[in-house]
Design goal:
This protein is an alpha+beta fold and 173 residues long. The protein has 9 helices and 6 strands, in the order αβααββααβααββαα. A 3-stranded antiparallel sheet has the order 1-3-2. The protein has a 3-stranded antiparallel sheet with strand order 4-6-5.
Length: 173
């Protein structure tokens, strides 16, 4: 990226926030940077058109990444880590997995239907595998090393103290 590409302070600030917080979504950028919605949309579109950022849709949010730094699998993990319950489920599976929906429901203090919905989204993103064990379904991370690595590298950009405590043992990864 050449210097003229980011000659505007506003564009440089938006780009830097995306670099510092990969997987950030539009509303978070809007809240954090306090630009007018149209201004932010314009600069994000410009950055994407110049191939300086990648755009990922996680089904609920459009998320932004520095270009060519994260492949699709990495983006799927970061997308899940940016969601509170996705991050908590991944943390429990990483530290204590494989776990059933009932186990996760008890640990998260959430209804099994809620946990099951989040697990189905994680399964659709190929982040977890499931296996029937009698009457229950047991979930396991597809690639625990990838989840551990991406969480550890980008931990400071997540804001969940409970998960930080659970995964704190990997600070030196």
């Amino acid at each position: 990226m050449s210097e003229p590409d980011l000659e505007l302070d506003s564009r440089r600030e938006i780009y830097q926030r995306i670099v510092d917080t990969p997987g950030v979504h539009f509303r978070a950028l809007l809240d954090d940077l306090e630009y007018a919605q149209g201004t932010l949309q314009y600069h994000i579109r410009w950055l994407a058109d110049k191939d300086l950022i990648d755009v990922s849709d996680d089904g609920k949010y459009t998320r932004y990444y520095p270009a060519a730094e994260f492949n699709e699998a990495d983006q799927a993990v970061i997308n899940a880590l940016r969601r509170e319950y996705g991050r908590r489920i991944l943390a429990h599976l990483l530290t204590d997995g494989p776990l059933s929906t009932t186990d996760l429901s008890d640990r998260l203090d959430k209804a099994q239907s809620t946990v099951s919905w989040h697990l189905s989204k994680l399964a659709e993103a190929d982040l977890v595998t499931k296996e029937r064990d009698g009457r229950s379904v047991v979930y396991e991370l597809s690639d625990p090393d990838q989840v551990r690595y991406l969480y550890t590298v980008h931990q400071r950009s997540f804001t969940d103290k409970i998960v930080d405590r659970i995964l704190g043992l990997w600070d030196g990864y």
